[in-house]
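Let's practice the habit of predicting before peeking. Look at the sequence and jot down your guess about where helices and strands might fall. Then scroll down.
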Amino acid sequence: MRQTGIDSIGGGGFNEKVFHNVFNRVFSLENLFLAWREFKKGKRKRPDVQDFEFNLEDNLFQLRHELKNQTYRHGSYTPFCVTDPKLRHIHKATVRDRVLHQAVFRVLYPVFDKYFIFDSYSCRVGRGTHRAVTRLETFCRKLSRNNARAVFALKCDIKRFFDSVDQEILIGLISRKIKDTNALCLVEKIVKSFPKGLPLGNVTSQLFANIYLNQLDQFIKHNLKERYYIRYCDDFVILGESQEYLSESSQKINNFLMGKLNLSLHPSKIIIRQYRQGIDFLGYVVLPRHMVLRTRTKKRLLRRVTGKNIPSYLGVLRHCRGFRIKQAIERKIYRP
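Done guessing? Here is the structure:
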């Protein structure tokens, strides 16, 4: 494994503790059966999942045997596209491999999650988009002293993040905490089962993305010493008191990403706005005295809402000013 220079990245005590006996926990029967239980939620009607479940014990025992004897080989992926709302290329692994991903995730998540910053909200227990937007609202009130002074927001997006993750750097970061050689070999098989970057669709990709971008989080919190910073996957917001300061910060961040993680900010998505103009983040727009849905989100909601999914969409509206949208939904669904 080549050296990546990662020892100088970030901070925050990431090397305080290392873990050795990881591999045996991954392939334990208890972990594999629990991984299956978590994986199958919402998927039991799918033919490939039903086929795997038909011989569940045999399949899990065989997977355990291959892991224990280190003969496991990751299978191929099936590509397809989704629009949510932008076009995304998803790569689906076999059921067997996805159960393994879940087993690995169950063991590695608690190892790494405790070292992530508080204000990282993607794919973490007790976090999520609504918590992130609420936190941004709180930050805005604090820095603006309840809207008494001007606040600016720097909003950035990392260019082609999942495609651009350097697999060697990622494996190096994981190896800083995981000192179990067999576990690292398994992680490397999962990471390198995809030709470049990380595949959208693997539960492990969510964790690996947070491990990778934790280096950015640590840089922003400990090197730039930003108090008002929130990240959700590859989107993040920093609040400040001047446009000039935030513009300089974006340059420093971009230099760090290019120099340490082989990433870069999307040049057309580096946006600095005043808080009073509204901060567009994760489908909502945060304003000084209220929060509303982003226009595109509103249109998509009205287009997709049906009698079956209306409770989930009404749940989205509970987090913002959405009375008129609720009325529009009710007219669409309950119109005679």
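How did you do? Confidence is low (pLDDT under 50) at residues 1-15.
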